[in-house]
Amino acid sequence: MCGRFVLTAPREAIENLFEVPLAGPYEARYNITPSQPVLHIHQFTGERQSDYARWGLIPSWHKDPASAQLLINARSETVLEKPSFRNAIRHRRVLVPATHFYEWRREGKAKQPYAVDRKQPDGDAGLFAMAGIVDEWAGNDGGVLTTLAILTQQADGAIAAIHHRMPIVVPPAHYASWLDCRTVEASMALEPLRIPQPDAWKLWPVDMAVNRAGVDGAQLLEEVAVQPVEPPKPNPQLDLF
Question: What residues contact residue 63 under an 8 Å CB cut-off, 6+ apart?
């Protein structure tokens, strides 16, 4: 899965890679968490644009967003059939800029966070794009809530050693087809993105502070030493059986 990620590339790097001006203010963020606004690139009107959506997709048909489960990820293997996602994958595909993401490995009773980035990023300052989808929920008062989910696939390479899922990355050569929801079918846009890339990633352990949604800053990406997990102590009582 993808439950936290980072976007620290300069504004100019994002605009150059995605060939679009950024809407509104922009600042580096080291701990983007579910329910927070997420920068994304779309082409819903035929022209490439940038915008923000709340991370945690709510289907347009849901009755009450206050009671809805936040769907932060969508499995690429089933996204075309799931009622919560199938409309969004067909009509509202987006690119989610990132420079790193975090994943957790269970070590004993704790979960150790790791920072992950690409060995060869697609843009300056480590920039790459994750595949995303958005949906819009319209209230009776006319207000519209735009929400987002990130697509995932089976993990490979170094990531597979700590977790079984990872976000789908969209290479620049596929930006146009992924964003073109008018003429490119969802299955055709998705298929070339699920090619394994076992040597594309590097990762390192980081401080547990990343678990707290209110914590931000470059210190979250600093490598920390991981204490070895001690094997359980033998129970003498078991020797009786």
Answer: none
188, 177 Cβ separation under 8 angstroms: yes
Task: For residue range 41-72, list pLDDT tens digits in order.
Answer: 999 999 999 999 999 999 988 887 777 788 99
H helices present in the chain, as ranges = 11-18, 86-91, 175-179, 186-190
pTM comes to 0.91
Please give the domain boundaries of the chain with CATH numbers for all domains. Answer: 4-219 (3.90.1680.10)
Which residue's entry shows tokens 């035929």?
Answer: 46
H or E stretch covering 94 = strand 93-98
Chain segment 113-161, per-residue pLDDT in tens = 999 999 999 999 999 999 999 999 887 777 889 999 999 999 999 999 9
